[in-house]
Design goal:
Helix content: 10-25%
Distance between the termini: 36 Å
Number of strands: 5
Shape: globular
Strand order of the largest sheet: 2-3-4
Strand content: 25-35%
Largest sheet: 3 strands, antiparallel
Order of helices and strands: HEEEEE
Oligomer: single chain
Structural class: alpha+beta
Amino acid sequence: MNRWLKAFIGAACALMVTTPTWAKTVCNAKDNAARVLKSPSPNDLHPDWTGIGNIGTGQGFIPKASKRTHVGLFLQGDLYSTRGGLMTPNAWIFAKEWICEKS
């Protein structure tokens, strides 16, 4: 195989691995200690989810984008109720507190 073709295929594979697509991905909280955030910072709680508002494991979070910081991976997207209604648009979550799977 031509070395340029090998390099092209290798670069394309690397691009696919490093640029995640969130299409058809749904996340659920690992437990009710998971947080819904206003920004990609673990202590910047979303105003709708401060105080006694605990997230349940039944709500679904559909990510649209991600950001990696020195703390870890954060996902931005929309939080849906257990019945499918939009609860919190454009929120952030700390990925390690959630289980995300392709649907």
